[in-house]
């Protein structure tokens, strides 16, 4: 970077225009996501070059420290800048200076950069090998030079990698599972090709759902209550804390207002009974499976597979390049209950992806140290 970049607040309209100018961006970096996270103060910022043209953007979420007007500035899966740059300081330093001026005691970023990939065969081999416990112990199918350079530069610039999932900033997964929807030449894959890439059980379950008469439709705002009831049922069965209905209502309203097909609710019914439901989000060429719910009853009609296949087809028809099934844990230990989720996602024929992860920069070291101690007392939970 030969000329200095300047960072200043931008309107949500300019922020959204920048997102639309890119092939894709994380939905966590859209202006609408700031409207969903109402417990945080939000700000859209932009990077400007020497011609005063907008060349980067970010959604910043500010979480206040208890009893102090100081904030953790959090950029989930962002910022949207040139991560291929050999001089990341030119991008990050003016950002940090701006955030310091806003009262930030620390900054947390999540570079949207791939570090390593493992194809389906590599993941299956790792699961089958009793001597392998973690995905990182399996030789990757692909290593990213850009990802390695980003990680190296962040270390050199004093950023600290965050390994704790969840936490004060509700951290995002470092390992995800993705299904490529384009071939090596960049052409859209056919539905037949995608089905052939799935394992035999997935193909069998999709056919079984179709034969049983499972119907998948798109729902609207009035259907969110039904989704939420099934989601609460799923949470009770699987042992996680569900979000309130109001959270999903905010998601649908905010994301839907930004783009008509940003938020899509898929409902799988069998003989009038809701057996599975999911929320999909798409930004440009990237589609995410965001939330899912399924009934304990009628599991034999395979509503979960039917609704997943409907979302894959929907993403393909919309021109998406990737269908993202979001987070997986790194464990490949057959005795770990989390490995079942990996097996389910591996069945799609996609690939496991390691991202650069989340990184913190202490701006005010005493306050950041107090914040770290606060996290430890809370057990890292938000």
Automatic annotation (TrEMBL):
PANTHER family reported for this sequence: LIPID II:GLYCINE GLYCYLTRANSFERASE (PTHR36174)
The keyword Ion transport belongs to this UniProt entry's keyword annotation: no
Keyword Cell wall biogenesis/degradation: yes
UniProt name for this protein: Lipid II:glycine glycyltransferase (Peptidoglycan interpeptide bridge formation enzyme)
InterPro entries assigned: Acyl_CoA_acyltransferase, FEMABX, PG_Glycine_Bridge_Synth
Species this chain originates from: Nocardioides perillae
Molecular function (Gene Ontology), one example: aminoacyltransferase activity
Family, as annotated: Belongs to the FemABX family.
Any Pfam family matching the protein: FemAB
GO biological process: cell wall organization; peptidoglycan biosynthetic process; regulation of cell shape
Origin: domain of life: Bacteria
Keywords: Acyltransferase, Cell shape, Cell wall biogenesis/degradation, Peptidoglycan synthesis, Transferase
């Amino acid at each position: 970077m030969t000329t200095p970049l300047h960072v200043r607040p931008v309107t949500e309209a300019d922020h959204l225009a920048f997102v639309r100018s890119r092939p894709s961006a994380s939905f966590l970096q859209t202006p609408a996501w700031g409207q969903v996270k109402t417990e945080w103060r939000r700000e859209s910022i932009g990077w400007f070059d020497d011609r005063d043209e907008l060349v980067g953007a970010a959604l910043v979420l500010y979480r206040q420290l208890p009893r102090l007007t100081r904030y953790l500035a959090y950029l989930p899966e962002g910022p949207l800048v040139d991560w291929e740059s050999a001089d990341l300081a030119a991008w990050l330093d003016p950002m940090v200076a701006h955030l310091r001026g806003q009262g930030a005691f620390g900054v947390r970023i999540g570079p949207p950069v791939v570090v390593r990939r493992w194809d389906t065969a590599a993941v299956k081999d790792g699961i089958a090998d009793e001597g392998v416990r973690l995905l990182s112990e399996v030789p990757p199918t692909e290593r990213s030079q850009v990802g390695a350079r980003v990680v190296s530069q962040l270390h050199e610039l004093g950023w600290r990698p965050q390994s704790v999932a969840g936490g004060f900033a509700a951290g995002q997964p470092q390992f995800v599972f993705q299904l490529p929807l384009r071939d090596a030449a960049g052409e859209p894959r056919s539905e037949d090709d995608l089905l052939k890439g799935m394992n035999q059980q997935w193909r069998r379950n999709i056919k079984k759902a179709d034969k049983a008469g499972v119907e998948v439709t798109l729902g609207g705002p009035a259907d969110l209550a039904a989704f939420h009831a099934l989601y609460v049922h799923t949470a009770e069965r699987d042992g996680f804390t569900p979000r309130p209905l109001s959270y999903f209502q905010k998601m649908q309203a905010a994301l839907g207002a930004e783009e008509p097909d940003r938020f899509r609710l898929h409902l799988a019914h069998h003989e009038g009974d809701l057996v599975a439901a999911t929320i999909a989000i798409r930004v440009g060429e990237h589609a995410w499976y965001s939330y899912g719910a399924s009934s304990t009853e009628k599991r034999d009609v395979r509503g979960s597979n039917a609704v997943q296949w409907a979302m894959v087809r929907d993403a393909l028809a919309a021109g998406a390049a990737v269908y993202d099934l979001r987070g997986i844990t790194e464990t490949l230990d057959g005795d770990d209950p989390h490995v079942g989720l990996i097996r389910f996602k591996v069945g799609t024929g996609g690939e496991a992806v390691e991202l650069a992860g989340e990184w913190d920069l202490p701006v005010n070291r005493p306050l950041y140290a107090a914040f770290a101690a606060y996290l430890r007392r809370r057990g890292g939970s938000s």
